[in-house]
Design brief:
This protein has a 5-stranded parallel β-sheet, sandwiched between helices. The radius of gyration is 16 Å and the shape is globular. It is an alpha/beta fold and 190 residues long.
Length: 190
């Protein structure tokens, strides 16, 4: 694991918001990025109130009224990291532009990593995984809600199909170029 970057309050921070529908591979990609960067990490699902979890577990999709308080909690966590001078990684579905706008409002550190894969690949992953409250029946509603990153949004869409190390290589290469960040070596640790 890479040594954690000491907070440098004079340098801008970066918050990687690893986004996508459930089963796209965002947690796996986020884990690889955290292992490389040593930055603080937050799993967006942990910020859902119990009512949201119960609703999803029962097969009901969340609506905007369910999502706004959850997104505000995540934005608060991002703001806390920025105030501490820390870069960070967070997972969040961030399906709509309006959700992403809320996450980056007043938070210049935010840079999105949209992990994408075909619906067939994602459905297969969701059907095989265990221990997650998101049932496969909600995938269609997430895909219908998803608004891909627009050209004017900070970030990059990456495939969630290659090995996580390869995806992290791509993300870090683009991040170096776009944000001018000094980051750990590109290759995965051996």
């Amino acid at each position: 694991m890479a040594a954690a970057e000491a907070p440098d309050r004079s340098a801008p921070t970066t918050t990687l918001v690893v986004m996508g529908v459930s089963g796209s591979g965002k947690s796996t990609v986020a884990d690889e990025l955290v292992a490389r960067l040593g930055w603080p990490f937050a799993e967006g699902d942990d910020f859902h109130p119990p009512e949201n979890v119960a609703k999803m577990r029962s097969g009901q999709p969340l609506d905007d009224d369910d999502r706004w308080p959850w997104l505000r909690r995540l934005a608060g966590w991002i703001g806390e990291r920025e105030a501490a001078g820390e870069s960070a990684v967070v997972t969040c579905s961030a399906l709509k532009r309006s959700y992403r706008d809320l996450l980056r409002a007043g938070h210049p550190s935010v840079w999105f990593v949209h992990v994408a894969a075909s619906p067939e690949v994602i459905r297969d992953r969701i059907e095989r995984r265990t221990g997650h409250y998101m049932p496969p029946s909600l995938l269609d509603s997430q895909l219908a809600t998803l608004e891909p990153l627009a050209a004017d949004e900070p970030g990059r869409t990456v495939s969630g199909v290659p090995a996580p190390a390869q995806v992290a290589d791509d993300v870090l290469r683009v991040l170096r170029r776009e944000r001018g960040r000094t980051l750990p070596p590109q290759e995965a640790p051996s």
